Amino acid sequence: AWGNNSYGALGDGTTTRRTAPIDISAHLNLEPGERVVDMKVQADHNYFLTSTGRVLVFGYNSNFRLGTGNATSERTPVDNTASFPIEEADTLIAIYAGAAHGYALSRQGRLFGWGFNSDGRIGNNTTTHVPLPFELTHLLNLAEADQLEAVYVATNNTFIVTEQGRLFAWGRNHYGQLGVGHKQAVIAPQEITDILNLTGDETIENISLSGDTTFILTSYGRLFASGRNTHGQLGLGTTSNFEAFVEISALFELDEDDAIQRVEADDFHTVVLTSNQRVFTFGSNGRNLQGPEGANPQTTPLDITEALGLWEGETILDFSTKFITTRFLTSANRWVVAGYNQNGVLGTGDAETPSAFTAVTFHAWYALESTMVPYDSMLTLPDWTKENATFAGWHTAADLNSPLATLTMPAHTLKLYASWTREE
Q1: In this structure, what DSSP letter does residue 237 have?
Q2: Which of 24, 126, 228, 252 is the most buried (most CB within 10 A)?
Q3: Long-range interactions of 206-209: CB distance < 8 A, separation 24+
């Protein structure tokens, strides 16, 4: 762990800022064979889930965000599993985090919430902060054969999808982001399944939450949006907020064999990826979030696929839209980035805001061959070929700034790094 350590957020027993990684494994007190399987890292506190179903918490604890029953901050991880009222045969299998509240889901489908509860964001039908994990399952009134299938948690609101396709929402609703037709907070789970008018066997595939906006993608490739739209981040051609879900699928004008595959949004802009690897963006274009072609605000979907400068055959594997940045991870082991770059957060080698999408390449090393070579004998090194690339030589360090100077084997193990230059 490294970075800001106010209130012990790094879990190393101190509040000292760490500018380089430190090992905090010993502070977790894991049992033999136990490992961390999930973690939710917030600005000032953290939740860890282990392979045995234990929940470890540490950091800032104002408004009971750690769920330990008090407001005392913890500088080292604390095992809070005993605070959950679960049966001996049950175990916790998932954890979720809002800005200052958390949830945990058990194997038997029971949902527990705790922490900061302004606007009823925990969903327990009150706005009182919750010091210990409180079970919410009964408030959903699920059928006996139904269980929770997916939980989506934003900074201040929550959406839940059940195995039978029911959809529930609650929490802060200042911009209409819950899609219920008004802007009042919803302090207990409210079913909104019928609002979307799903057809036949259509189901909810994914929900993207920024806290102020909501996007729901269905199995038919239909995309619904609601909430804050002051930057045009809903893609509807206006900057008016929407208190009810509006389908925006037709705005993308996709080919018949193409469909919306994934949506990610922050409080300022939205990015959409299709099954044919087309990329659309809309919303704020401050700090060139959408490249030089985008208006500011860009209120309708803009196809930026070509602006990314991908190589032939290169595809997008993942992307994110957090903290006024846009990042795409590609199959060529590159990040293509744009947006806010203070302190060099984009990894471009400087702290300047790029004027267009910029590629950042990471070296991926893997062993090609290992062989024994007698001391003082001559090395025989092949020129490995790669498709669409030119072999650029051997180096003795991973930074590729130390070319191999001699082919005579030294009196120690020699690890060499090969590099290639891609042919445009």
Answers
A1: S
A2: 228
A3: 206/262, 206/263, 207/150, 207/152, 207/159, 207/161, 208/263, 208/264, 208/265, 209/152, 209/153, 209/154, 209/157, 209/159, 209/177, 209/265
Using a CB cutoff of 8 Å and minimum separation of 24, what contacts does 214-220 make? 214/157, 214/159, 214/177, 214/178, 214/179, 214/245, 215/263, 215/265, 215/270, 216/159, 216/167, 216/245, 217/260, 217/262, 217/263
- Four-residue CA torsion sign, 307, 308, 310, 314: negative
Q: What is the pLDDT of residues 274-316, one digit of tens each?
A: 999 999 999 999 889 888 888 999 999 999 999 999 988 899 9
Predicted pLDDT at 363: 59
Token couple for 230: 């002051």
Structural domains of the chain sorted by starting position, each given as residue range(s) with its CATH number in brackets: 1-139 (2.130.10.30), 140-361 (2.130.10.30), 365-423 (no CATH)
Whether the Cβ atoms of residue 187 and residue 119 lie closer than 8 Å to each other: yes
pLDDT band at 424 (very low <50, low <70, confident <90, very high): low
Please enumerate, as own/partner, the contacts of 245-250 that have beta carbons within 8 Å and a separation of 24 or more.
245/179, 245/195, 245/196, 245/214, 245/216, 247/222, 247/223, 248/223, 248/224, 248/301, 249/221, 249/222, 249/223
258: three-class secondary structure by DSSP: coil
What is the spatial distance between Cα 24 and Cα 37, in angstroms, rounded to a whole number?
A: 16
* Strand segments (E) across 266-412: 269-274, 279-283, 298-303, 316-320, 325-330, 334-339, 358-361, 389-395
Q: Are strands 242-247 and 223-227 parallel, antiparallel or unpaired?
A: antiparallel
pLDDT of the residue at 421: 74
DSSP state of 100: S
Give buried/exposed letters for 54-82 (b at 16+ CB in 10 A, else e): bbbbbbbbebbbbbbeeeebbbbbbebbe
Residues in the chain: 424
Residues 6+ apart with CB under 8 A from 82: none
The sign of the CA dihedral 193, 199, 202, 208 is negative
Q: How many CB atoms lie within 10 A of CB 90?
A: 15
How high is the pLDDT of residue 238? 98
Give the span between the Cα atoms of 291 and 337, in whole angstroms.
10
